[in-house]
Amino acid sequence: MVSTLLVTGDGALSYDAGSVTLPRTVAQEGAASKAADLQGSFSLADVSVAYGRDRVIEGVSMYVPPRSVTALIGPSGCGKSTLLRCLNRMNDELGNVHVGGTITLDGADIMGRAMDPVELRMRVGQVFQRPNPFPMTIWDNVAYGPRTQGIRKRSELDELVEESLKGAALWAEVKNNLKKHAFELSGGQQQRLCIARALATKPEVILMDEPASALDPISTQQIEDTIAQLKDSVTIVIVTHNMQQAARISDQTAFMLRESLDEPAHLVEMDETRKMFTNPDDARTESYITGRFG
Amino acid sequence: MTTPPTHSGRRLGRTTTRRAAEAVVRAIIYLCGWMAIIILAAIAVFLMWNSFRAVNEAGLFTMLSGTAWYPTSSPGKFGMLPLIVGSLFVTGVALAVCVPVGVAAAVFISEFSGRLVKEVMKSIIEFMAAVPSVVYGLIGVAVLIPFVKDAFSLTSGMTAVTGGIVLGIMSIPTVISISEDALHAVPEELRQGSAALGNTRWQTTFKVTLPAASSGIFAAVMLGLGRAIGETMAVLMLTGNAAVMPASVFESVRTMTGTIAAEMGEVVQGGLHYSVLFAVGLVLFTITFGINLVADLVLERQRKRWRR
Q: Does the CB of B200 have a partner CB in chain A at under 8 Å?
């Protein structure tokens, strides 16, 4: 699906990372040159979110480079998941949520009227905290998204299912049982099925909201391996509570914090993961990462 | 009057009266629990006992397959088939009315309405279920009978369709509330997952939510059907009560329930006709029992599925 071309001569909204005050990232500079042929980069400028009157996030600006893993970390209730849901407009589903600022995907404003949230979600997939396979067979689960996109040909769907299951490192385990009900899989397998399901629509980005927090260590390891494989072909933004996980799998890390309940959360610091975990600029980042609070 | 301490010493304060009281309470609760089953079994036995003479003298198969219902001629003819077909026709029309409307309303309430609308609708539907059936019958007599007569240019508006439409309306609350429960029980994560794959609300509802709730909705339909087939007063007022084999739903019919209610007052206690009416009741009881049993089994299967 060709996507970004849909946005026309709306110059003000086109991709221009330089005009936005972004946290300094090394990855950004490298990525900018490749941005032409790579898709799946997000630019956030002064993003704020309010649930009714309750402002939960304010002033978040960041750049998510394409084909990489970006981790969002921070204590509970700091708005990581809320920010994640802004990226595919799942906040729209909750109602009474107001999102301010600008978010662009490959230069196209995703919050404007020109962007259909339903179309956006075909480009920006999501994997949820708890595995949520649909009550149908493995094959039907994976083919669900492509069918929504209008693909009807059986051979084409078969191909997509295989490709997606391979992408999610589940193919070897289920290739002989594609007609099995998804609920018969283990929790870890179900979660990889959900990743495969998200991959099947050929998204540019996959959002993951603590995808391994409900899983055992071995399944977690498998999910992390899958993520490492995927980042060559898709941008991944992952929310995690597990600091080691962020350190292991991500290329850049953003640390968010809500300093008190009276004020909204904000982005403290975002940088290359290695730098964030060894030599962060902000003292609060260091305290959080070393486990002094949170 | 304390009992001697037991080896653990924990029961020091428990008196024998208290222990006896507990045993009594337990027995009462136990009995109440079994009461439902006892009553149900008693009804079945009672019906069978009273229809024994009919089965013996008229023959079960002859009654079930006979098409002539002339209970007062001599000798009386007790072919129940017109009554059974009458009930099925009326119930079929009722289902055609209550299933689409009921399921659609449940989908609206569960998937598309706001919280306020939801609450208001739910209480109105409960109120709808509380209206006595004779009132529905009255409205049917005043409004629907002339309407059906004109709309289908019939000689009489008292037909299976008339009764079925009113029965369908009466069954709608049952279908709505149980379907709504089934839709509500579908985990929110599934809807979110579907939305995140680029599906609209409608697509999510049709492709994920409704299939996931299908067994619950099936149970709702079955219970609505049970309600429709057992209803008496409204059909008695609306279907014309002609105990002959109907050729279509646009003819007058007599249902099983209507027959029992209309004829029971005029029979000789203990007579053959009396016994035959009990046999009709037994057939009706068997049908509704079967329907409810199937609905329960299906619901239980759904529950197990989500527990995983």
A: yes
Residue type, A263: E
> What is the pLDDT at residue B156?
86
pLDDT tens across A131-190, in order?
999 989 999 999 999 998 888 999 999 999 999 999 998 999 999 999 999 999 999 999
Contacts of B194 in chain A (CB under 8 A): 134, 144
Tell me the shortest Cα–Cα distance from B202 to chain A, in angstroms: 12
Tens of pLDDT along B212-261?
Answer: 898 889 888 988 888 888 888 888 888 888 888 888 889 889 999 999 99
**Residues of chain A with C-beta less than 8 angstroms from the C-beta of B215:** none
- What are the start-end ranges of the E strands in chain A? 42-51, 54-64, 69-73, 97-105, 108-109, 124-127, 205-209, 235-239, 252-257, 266-272
B194 — contact with chain A (CB < 8 Å)? yes
B198 reaches A (C-beta below 8 A): yes
* pLDDT confidence bin for A21, thresholds 50/70/90: very low
Given a contact cutoff of 8 angstroms between Cβ atoms, the answer to whether B239 and B158 are in contact is yes
d(CA B7, CA A147): 70
Closest residue, chain A, to B196 (C-alpha): A121
Is B199 an interface residue toward A (CB < 8 Å)? Answer: yes
From the list A122, A128, A201, the residue facing B193 with the nearest CB is: A128
Average pLDDT over residues A66-90: 91
Residue B270's SS3 state is coil
State the nearest Cα–Cα gap between A150 and chain B, in angstroms: 11
* pLDDT tens by residue, B170-194: 999 999 999 999 999 898 899 999 9
Contact B190 A194 (CB under 8 A): no
Over residues A180-210, the pLDDT tens digits come to 999 999 999 999 999 999 999 999 999 999 9
**Closest residue to A148, CB basis, from B190, B199, B212:** B199
Chain B residue numbers touching A209 (CB-CB < 8 A): none
Write the CA distances from B183 to B110, B175, B177, B216, integer angstroms: 7, 12, 10, 8
User: Are the beta carbons of B98 and B196 closer than 8 angstroms?
Assistant: no
Pairing of strands A252-257, A266-272: antiparallel
Q: Supply B260's token pair.
A: 């029992």
User: How many other β-carbons are positioned within 10 Å of the β-carbon of residue B145?
Assistant: 20
A231, A179 Cβ separation under 8 angstroms: no
Partners of B199 on chain A (C-beta within 8 Å) are 118, 121, 148
Got the DSSP string for B162-195? HHHHHHHHHHHHHHHHHHHHHHHTS-HHHHHHHH
> Tell me, what's the pLDDT at A242?
87
Euclidean distance between CA atoms B77 and A137, whole angstroms:
56
Minimum Cα–Cα distance from B211: chain A residue: A135
pLDDT on residue B9: 52
Q: Which amino acid, one-letter code, is at A25?
A: T
Q: What is the pLDDT of residues B152-164, one digit of tens each?
A: 888 888 999 999 9
Query: pTM of the full predicted structure?
Result: 0.75
Which has the closest alpha carbon to A67: A205, A226, A237, A235? A235
Residue where the block lists tokens 């009266």: B17
Q: What is the pLDDT of residue B267?
A: 87
